[in-house]
Design brief:
35% of the residues lie in helices and 25% in strands. The longest helix is centred in the last third of the chain and has 26 residues. It contains 5 helices and 10 strands, in the order ββββββααβββαβαα. The chain folds into 2 domains: 55 residues, no CATH class; 113 residues, no CATH class. By secondary structure, the chain is an alpha+beta fold. A hairpin with a 2-residue loop joins β8 and β9.
């Protein structure tokens, strides 16, 4: 039986969920709840191999604004903070190779670091040695963003870019709770090596 799916403003808190294996009955918040970037899910708290019973998708800013009169003051403040953060991310995120500085050297190794910001919040800091190449607001479970940024870095620095290595400090925010996230990050890093091999092969053919 597939897990039930709810929007955040549906009446999921009042729904009684039933485990198809053991017959456990309870509401979403009484089950085994896991929280992710865009949703939370509930599994049976009694079964050893807990089946997922329901998924609740977090609201978009537009959905929250549509339900504004039903939000608590704390929820309204949370929405306002989220909208401010999203606006800041849009304004300051890396979008093209033209935003990146020119760097000397034939072999560039970069790090993907994580730092606290003055005034609160955190930022991703990309460095080449001691030089800061780019800063932008850090995204929790930002492994997809990592892959996007690596593509942009590659378009700027080409085969000179040998690697973009996450630091230990960046791991929590970069990987989050997704078991597949380290593999996605490693795949993005592996593409840099594949690109170098392809380039070298093409140059040998031309010779």
């Amino acid at each position: 039986m597939p897990a039930r799916s709810f929007g955040y403003y549906d009446k999921w808190r009042d729904e009684v969920l039933v485990c198809p294996r053991c017959g456990w009955r309870g509401r979403f918040e009484e089950g085994s709840v896991e929280y992710y970037e865009t949703l939370m899910d509930c599994s049976c708290p009694s079964c050893e191999e807990s089946p997922m019973l329901a998924v609740v998708h977090y609201p978009s800013g537009e959905q929250s604004r549509a339900h504004w009169d039903h939000l608590t003051e704390a929820e309204k403040q949370s929405v306002a903070r989220r909208e401010k953060w999203e606006a800041e991310l849009e304004a300051s995120s890396l979008k093209s190779a033209e935003q990146l500085p020119d760097l000397p050297g034939r072999r560039l190794r970069m790090t993907w670091d994580f730092e606290a910001r003055e005034g609160g919040g955190h930022q991703t800091v990309i460095k080449c040695g001691d030089r800061v190449v780019w800063r932008e607001p850090a995204i929790y479970e930002g492994y997809r963003r990592f892959a996007e940024v690596v593509v942009i870095l590659k378009s700027k620095y080409g085969e000179r870019l040998l690697d973009v290595e996450p630091t230990d400090e960046s791991g929590y925010y970069l990987y989050g709770d997704r078991l597949s996230s380290p593999g996605i990050v490693e795949a993005a890093r592996a593409q840099l090596a594949e690109g170098r091999k392809k380039g070298a092969s093409e140059r040998r053919r031309e010779e």
